[in-house]
Amino acid sequence: MKLSGKEYALLSYFVENYDQVLSKEQITIRIWGYDTDVEYNNEEVYISFLRKKLKFIGTDTVIETVRGVKYRLRGKNNETV
To answer: Which domains does the chain possess?
Structure first.
């Protein structure tokens, strides 16, 4: 699967924190930096790209939305990666 630099960084961050809930703020700081001026929905766009690519390759791993402002990478049936 071909990933852009930001997609790769984002997926790596999710894998490093598998099954842990990550806030939008944590993701933004880690991927774009503390003093970033990126648009608020940038991470939503990149997460959408990753979700589509994960679905395309047929993996059982998904990026879940947790109460609208947080995300978690996990298996569809809660299995480990």
So the answer is: 5-75 (1.10.10.10)
